[in-house]
Amino acid sequence: MTRTYARAPRGERATVPEPVNYGARIAVLGALSLRGLLAPRTSEGAVNREVFALYGEHCLAPALRPGDLGFLDNVQFHYSERAVSLRKAAGASVGGVSASVLARL
């Protein structure tokens, strides 16, 4: 087991001999609806416009039904031209969630 705390003489930095390996970063994408979880997907690394657009085209758009309502936070890639056109083509409408609402969750 790795120690939680380290000690060092006053004025010197404590060193940790154990290797630090945090692993890969995994992003989880999905939509929650009254029908359950739609289009769950994981992606290695960060999500950007390109990754989100590919997710929307291949996973989310086929799962959406006309009249579905989506709520998005203020991440800019949610509002890219390609993402908006995919939502409109699927017949889904979108409402925004303000930062103050997200802060209370």
Task: Describe it.
By secondary structure, the protein is an alpha+beta fold. It has one domain. The chain is built from 3 helices and 4 strands. The strands form 2 sheets. It has a two-stranded antiparallel sheet with strand order 1-2. Helix 1 (49-63) packs parallel to helix 2 (81-90). The longest helix has 15 residues, at 49-63. The radius of gyration is 21 Å and the shape is elongated. It starts with 25 loop residues before the first strand and ends with a helix. 8% of the residues are buried.
Q: What is the 3D shape?
A: elongated
How many helices?
3
Distance between the termini: 35 Å
Average pLDDT over all residues = 84
Number of β-strand runs = 4
Radius of gyration: 21 Å
Order of helices and strands: EEHEHEH
Name the beta content range.
15-25%
Helix content: 25-40%
Number of domains: 1
Strand order of the largest sheet: 1-2
- Indicate the low-confidence ranges by residue numbers: none
Largest sheet: 2 strands, antiparallel
Structural class: alpha+beta
